[in-house]
Amino acid sequence: MLLSIPFCIVLGSWQLGRFEDRVQGHRTASEQVVETGREAPRPLDEMLPVTKATSGKPVTATGRYDRQLLVPDRKLDDRRGFYVLTLLRTDSGEALPVVRGWLPGTAGAVKAPAPPRGEVTVTGALQASETPGDNGVSARGGLPAGQTAAISAASLVNLVSYDVYDAWVTLAEGDTGMRAVPVAAPPDSGLDLKAFQNLGYTAEWFAFVGFVIFMWFRLLRREIELARDMELGLVPDEEEPVTVEPAAR
């Protein structure tokens, strides 16, 4: 009991701390979204790599638009549609994935407006590369040519012949009549299923503490009752031999 109770309390407190960190991360991310519009955009290279502190911050980059892809099955205001993703070739040689906007309906190349030609300077919110499960990102494969399930360097480098930044940008204003994609909270900073799993584990570990105390009390009570019965002679100290009388003939 002396070992089990501190062990359960430590693990329960650790899980509670994880939950509180996620709550604080969610609050911080929400505040960052509000403050993003008040900050002046900074050059892209100064804000990399993407962290929880830099995610959602306004950045600016200059280059030429190149390959255009569609990201299907993306919701906006409970409507299903798709992102129009265009790779911006910068002077560094790497390409920056730029989400130029969102369109409703099924993803189709004919619906997506062509990107501007020539050198352009984009301004938008910096986002970390997606992984399956983040913000509803699907892991399904077998997409048609010109589509990608996740906006990540790991996925995009297989579709183009040049390096891609391990980050992406969503434009502050939708391009060519498209709706701007809102800034997403950084990964592991929202009150998602993982956060409430931590809260559930917290309750579980403290429930184990109550179970240990209950079992200790029950066993102690049993020992006390057994000792009392032995004092009263209700329970013999040793088993007495049983004598079997021969049956009468």
TrEMBL record:
Coiled coil: none
Main location: membrane
Segments crossing the lipid bilayer: 199-220
Membrane among keywords: yes
Topological category with respect to the lipid bilayer: Multi-pass membrane protein
Top-rank taxon: Bacteria
Protein's name according to its UniProt entry: SURF1-like protein
Species annotation: Streptomyces levis
